[in-house]
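Morning!

This is the sequence you dropped in the shared folder:
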Amino acid sequence: MYSLTLTHKFDSAHRLRDYEGPCANIHGHTWRVKIKIKVDELVKDMVIDFKDLKNAIDKRFDHKFINDQVNYNPTAENISKDIYNMVRKLYFGIAEKGEDKIMPIIAVTVWESDNASITYSE
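The structure's back. Tokens below.
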């Protein structure tokens, strides 16, 4: 089994909807994302290109106001699930054998601070 791990950072702002407290105001974070993908077989001699993962995250989130980019309340929990879905779609977009034959195990951890993180996986 192959296990890819990528840790990446991006800067962006957001505000939480339907929340009582300071996070209801616009504020920024240097977010850290850790992506883990485990597969039994390689596609084109790779699990997935690190560059493709970083570019997909940056295109959607880096130096953006997240509320303008998504249709959900941008909590760390929801962002981790969004990135998970992005990674899954990207992986299956390059997998030649099809979704029914190569099933990756994917986990995405998102930190909004050094001490607070959430992991999403299926």
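Headline: The chain has one domain: 2-121.

More detail when I'm at my desk.
O.
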